Amino acid sequence: MKLTDELQSEFLAALSHPNRLRIVEMLRDGELCQCKFPEALGIEQSNLSRHIKTLISAGVLASRREGVKILLSVSDPRIFDLIDTIGEILRRQVLDQATVLEQQD
Question: Cα separation of 5 and 26, whole Å?
Answer without folding.
Answer: 28
